[in-house]
């Protein structure tokens, strides 16, 4: 579990995913400076797709209070869970 450093009271959970090709987040406020020119689609294991509305870095605070910057995170509108791709780390 990680925490967004700008909002101490708001806990943002990220899941480490071994099957995910890209880091993905559904909360626009998490991004440092969202590049909305990146438009694409993400395909899930059940063959459903969802639109990508941007890409940028996010900063997270780990349980040990270290701050990590994660690059190339896709903004996927209405994604219910934030995903960290093990392959991209």
UniProtKB/TrEMBL annotation:
Organism: Rubroshorea leprosula
Protein name: Retrovirus-related Pol polyprotein from transposon TNT 1-94-like beta-barrel domain-containing protein
Residues of the Retrovirus-related Pol polyprotein from transposon TNT 1-94-like beta-barrel domain: 14-89
A Pfam family the protein falls into: Pol_BBD
